[in-house]
Design goal:
382 residues, Rossmann fold, six-stranded parallel sheet, 16 helices
């Protein structure tokens, strides 16, 4: 059995990358040929899940600032700290090199584009690096790389690179000259029982994701406000997600209040296991301006929701318009409203789409299928 180290850039369960990691770990363990050891930047909720799976993990702080918000400007104090940061970064690489050698690590897998100190140590120790590219960075996180030249040099020194969608591959192939393999994310599922849904008098719509401008929850709220008055009262909107951008959330709340939609739209908070909640809804909207993959799109399909998505990024790769869901032009709340109205009025159409999408999702996007392809990639290194 070969030891592999997988570095995750966060320790919470807000990120889709964390959930994808947990799904991958389950099948790596089941396969039995590789022993995964996870590296985290700090303590967090993911620790509980790793303990349940009996996965060994280490917390190793990373001093290198990998990304920053696009408009962020360092304070004078931060600039002074930044002058001594390279010293701590060198110490980090030494610590990580010792960790790799002590644990006899044969492959390092970096699970996100937004971290990678373990890759620096691995390359120094001549250990193969697999890098998972899950983000656009600018378009979805509204962030920028700090010292991008150094990061791109590191990416180009990876042994294997994985993109979670063709769109992501297209974005990064300009900067990364090595071959990038597309392996779509997979969702871990407990059973393949097709949800039986009967739409009632109230059409229940949900939207899931970090509450921020990039996820564009406002577009759904506006689309619902554009429905004919008699239809507005026949639907309910449920917003799920961690509030990441307070001013943006305040704008949404203000719009809801001005348009007297308090009885229509409700905030449900964050859930680490959203799938069980999705079973309650008729429709899911994915309004993100640019999804790298669109994990919630597949979760919605698997839960038997009609999924309506913005025709951009990974979302447009996952939904076949009028077959497994509906696509609308990004930024066009009026068109989104028209599609919602069509689904509300034509239950047979909505039900047909639900069934097709459920079958498509289970045939193509399970965690088992994803893990099989990742394991094949590991095998190709040796």
């Amino acid at each position: 059995m070969k030891n592999i180290a997988i570095q995750n850039g966060c320790s919470d369960l807000y990120s889709g990358a964390s959930h994808s990691l947990l799904g991958l770990l389950k099948y790596i363990i089941k396969d039995g040929r590789y022993n995964p050891i996870v590296v985290l930047p700090k303590k967090g909720d993911i620790e509980y899940e790793l303990k349940k799976m009996n996965v060994n993990y280490y917390i190793i702080k990373q001093h290198e600032i990998w990304i920053l918000p696009q408009k962020y400007r360092m304070t004078m104090f931060e600039k002074i700290k930044d002058l001594i940061r390279p010293i701590f970064c060198k110490i980090d690489v030494i610590k990580m090199s010792i960790f790799l050698q002590k644990n006899n690590i044969k492959v390092v897998h970096i699970n996100m584009l937004t971290c990678g100190m373990l890759a620096r140590a691995a390359i120094k120790c001549k250990i193969p690096v697999v890098w998972h590219i899950r983000e656009f960075v600018e378009e979805d996180l509204q962030c920028r790389f700090v010292n991008p030249k150094s990061k791109f040099e590191l990416f180009n020194n990876a042994t294997k690179l994985i993109a979670v969608s063709k769109t992501i591959k297209e974005k990064w192939k300009e900067f990364i000259k090595k071959e990038i393999v597309v392996i779509y994310n997979g969702i871990d599922i407990k059973g393949e029982i097709e949800p039986t849904k009967h739409m009632g008098d109230v059409f229940k719509i949900c939207i899931v994701g970090r509450i921020c401008d990039g996820k564009n929850q406002m577009e759904l709220v506006k689309a619902v406000s554009l429905l004919p008055k008699e239809m507005i009262n026949k639907c309910r909107v449920f917003i799920w997600g961690n509030i990441e951008d307070e001013p943006y959330w305040e704008k949404i709340q203000s719009y809801i209040k001005v348009n007297r939609m308090e009885h229509i739209v409700s905030y449900e908070g964050f859930s680490g296991n959203i799938r069980e909640n999705l079973m309650k809804y008729d429709c899911m909207c994915v309004c993100a301006r640019q999804e790298a993959f669109g994990r919630t799109t597949i979760e919605g399909m698997m839960a038997g929701c009609v999924v309506i998505g913005a025709n951009s990024g990974g979302t447009s790769e996952l939904i076949e318009n009028n077959v497994t869901g509906f696509l609308y032009p990004p930024g066009n709340a009026q068109e989104l409203s028209r599609i919602l109205l069509k689904c509300m009025r034509d239950h047979l159409l909505a039900s047909t789409i639900q069934k097709r999408a459920w079958k498509y999702a289970f045939e193509n996007y399970t965690a088992k299928r994803n893990a099989t392809k990742v394991l094949e990639l590991y095998d190709s290194i040796f």
